Amino acid sequence: GAVVSQHPSRVICKSGTSVKIECRSLDFQATTMFWYRQFPKQSLMLMATSNEGSKATYEQGVEKDKFLINHASLTLSTLTVTSAHPEDSSFYICSATQGRGYTFGSGTRLTVV
Amino acid sequence: KQEVTQIPAALSVPEGENLVLNCSFTDSAIYNLQWFRQDPGKGLTSLLLIQSSQREQTSGRLNASLDKSSGRSTLYIAASQPGDSATYLCAVVHGGSQGNLIFGKGTKLSVKP
């Protein structure tokens, strides 16, 4: 079955630094990848949608200069949290689709101290 | 604007019971509906995917139904086990095959031995 690998699973960083999260589709080409964020006891919230080779589409309220998304190939998308602050601490999940079902990564727990 | 609601927010049952989780959505123009399972601090596992033209899907002890016209879906879990304890998320795809998923807040299920 379709597998999406997301790394790292956990990261702790200092305030003001940048963190890159990778999302790879291992056995299929993902036409579209999505990045979600989940705060405790809240539902997953879509941050942005990325299509290979084009700029990501960000949801309202998500700062595109802070959350940089690169989708350079059909199997890799990266999310970079720039100048991270404690309020960016959250659980980030990516998903990928070929157009029918969705496969999710295992998530990244980001803690900014 | 599509909204997804899941009831109840939390559910505790003794082992062996059959149970039903409910999901409702406000806009019936969905492409498909998916049920996921999320273990604490982990990513999502897809359980069942129902296309908009389908009425139900079954996988093992799980059965999901879809009534698009009334904006409802149910996830039926038969003979519940402690290993079923997790948060169950319902999500709809709105806006075509490449549309993003819109999630409910989930139902936290606890199955007591």
Describe the structure.
The complex is a heterodimer of chains A (113) and B (113). In chain A, a hairpin with a 2-residue loop joins strand 7 (67-73) and strand 8. Chain A contains no helices and eleven strands. Chain A is 0% helix and 53% strand. Chain A is mainly beta and 113 residues long. Chain A is globular and about 35 Å long. Chain B has 113 residues and is mainly β. In chain B, 0% of the residues lie in helices and 59% in strands. In chain B, a hairpin with a 4-residue loop joins strand 7 (62-67) and strand 8. The N and C termini of chain B lie far apart (41 Å). In chain B, 35% of the residues are buried. The A-B interface holds A 6, 31-32, 34, 41-46, 49, 91, 93, 95, 97, 99-107, 109 and B 4, 34, 36, 41-46, 49, 89, 91, 97-98, 100-106.
| Mean pLDDT over the full residue set of chain B | 92
Structural class of chain B: mainly beta
Give the radius of gyration of chain A: 13 Å
CA-to-CA gap between the ends of chain A? 37 Å
Give a short account of the largest sheet of chain A.
7 strands, mixed
Strand content of chain A: over 45%
- Which structural category do the helix and sheet elements of chain A fall into? mainly beta
Detail the poorly predicted runs of chain A.
Answer: none
Strand content of chain B: over 45%
What's the number of helices of chain A?
A: 0
User: SSE string of chain B, helix = H, strand = E?
Assistant: EEEEEEEEEEE
CA radius of gyration of chain B: 13 Å
This entry's quaternary arrangement is heterodimer
Shape of chain B: globular
Low-confidence segments of chain B: none
DSSP summary: helix tally of chain B: 0
